[in-house]
């Protein structure tokens, strides 16, 4: 299996590293526009192979897309990260152009690949890649839900003093402040979370999750990369190993949840064909209202992209 990661910055390099040391792919090609950066990071990851004991080949390229030819999965992380005081949506004008040109380049050389978008604003960049690639919607998907649920699960594990491995959760909507965590579908070793935690503490964790990205931007002056890079690698793994994992993933909705033509995070089954099924939960009225708010927000940002097209 061959995987290309475009953008050899913080998230892209972390993703490539996880793909290599966990031997998720046989070959990982890292591409960046900055001269030498992708080559250097790919070489560094390869030189770690004898220490961490893996065989995955990592190859770097400065904008030479021939090296990406025949990739099974492409992860796009190229684009600006936000700085303190910015929203993810503030990145649209720069990142839309980057995602468009990168998508044009990758699809030329890998017409059958599955594309995973990471660049922000996530839902709208997934829209951009879908428009440009003209691939089926099931093969152009965005990474956000795995990261957002991971944050939620980590906060819950800390509060309850339990292993994060035992916390299962699902979250829907756009990757931003309007995301919709679903406590009704959160369990701890099979026990509904609401039986283990006070409502006010759970509400505080939900609020912290919604602003989880911003919390890290404030601390570091740029956005997160360890959890995002690992989350993208987990999506790649589900695809290349045909695992049929159930994850929240951003995809264009085609009638599911009564929504058309909007890119939102929903639970799906992820396997060798990309999204193999969108799972439709029976949301209650409050959950539907939150999803509707998220839909309206993402549509507004999508319309900015349409206006600038
Ligand atoms: N979906 C999510 O949950 C998350 C999304 N992000 C987003 O991922 C993106 C990357 O973040 P970082 O890695 O922290 O940024 P970074 O600045 O460390 O890396 C971005 C890389 O993209 C490269 N690049 C820019 N234009 C390019 C082009 N046309 N072709 C190839 N490479 C190009 C840059 O040279 C740079 O090395 C940002 O947009 C950020 O907001 C970050 C974390 C989580
Ligand atoms: O917060 C950001 O800008 C990056 C991101 O999407 C996240 O870490 O959730």
From TrEMBL:
The entry's keywords: NAD, Oxidoreductase, Tricarboxylic acid cycle
Q: Which InterPro entries does the UniProt record give?
A: L-lactate/malate_DH, Lactate/malate_DH_C, Lactate/malate_DH_N, Lactate_DH/Glyco_Ohase_4_C, Malate_DH_type3, NAD(P)-bd_dom_sf
**Gene Ontology terms, MF aspect:** L-malate dehydrogenase (NAD+) activity
So what does this thing catalyse? (S)-malate + NAD(+) = oxaloacetate + NADH + H(+)
The keyword Signal is assigned to this record: no
Limits of the Lactate/malate dehydrogenase C-terminal domain: 147-300
For this entry, the protein name equals Malate dehydrogenase
The species this protein was found in: Carboxylicivirga mesophila
């Amino acid at each position: 299996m061959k995987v290309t990661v475009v953008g050899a910055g913080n998230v892209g390099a972390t993703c490539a590293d996880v793909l290599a040391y966990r031997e998720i792919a046989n070959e990982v090609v890292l591409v960046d526009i900055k001269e030498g950066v992708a080559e250097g990071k790919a070489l560094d990851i390869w030189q770690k192979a004898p220490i961490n004991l893996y065989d995955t080949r990592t190859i770097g390229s400065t904008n030479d897309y021939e090296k990406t030819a025949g990739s099974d999965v492409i992860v796009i992380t190229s684009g600006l990260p936000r700085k303190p005081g910015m929203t993810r949506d503030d990145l649209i004008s720069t990142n839309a152009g980057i995602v468009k040109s990168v998508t044009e380049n990758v699809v030329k050389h890998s017409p059958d690949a599955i594309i995973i978008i990471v660049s922000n604003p996530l839902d709208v960049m997934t829209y951009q890649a879908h428009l440009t690639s003209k691939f089926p919607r099931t093969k152009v998907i965005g990474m956000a839900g795995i990261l957002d649920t991971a944050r939620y699960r980590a906060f819950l594990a800390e509060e309850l003093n339990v292993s994060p491995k035992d916390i299962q959760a699902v979250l829907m909507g756009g990757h931003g402040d309007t995301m919709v965590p679903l406590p009704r579908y959160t369990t701890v070793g099979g026990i509904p979370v609401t039986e283990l935690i006070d409502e006010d503490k759970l509400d505080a964790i939900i609020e912290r999750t919604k602003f989880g990205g911003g919390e890290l931007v404030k601390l570091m002056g740029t956005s997160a990369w360890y959890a995002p890079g690992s989350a993208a690698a987990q999506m790649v793994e589900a695809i290349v190993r045909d695992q049929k994992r159930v994850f929240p993933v951003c995809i264009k909705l085609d009638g599911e949840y009564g929504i058309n033509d909007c890119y939102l995070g929903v639970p799906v089954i992820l396997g060798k064909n990309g999204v193999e099924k969108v799972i439709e939960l029976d949301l209650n009225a409050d959950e539907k209202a939150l999803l509707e708010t998220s839909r309206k927000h993402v549509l507004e940002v999508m319309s900015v992209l349409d206006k600038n097209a």
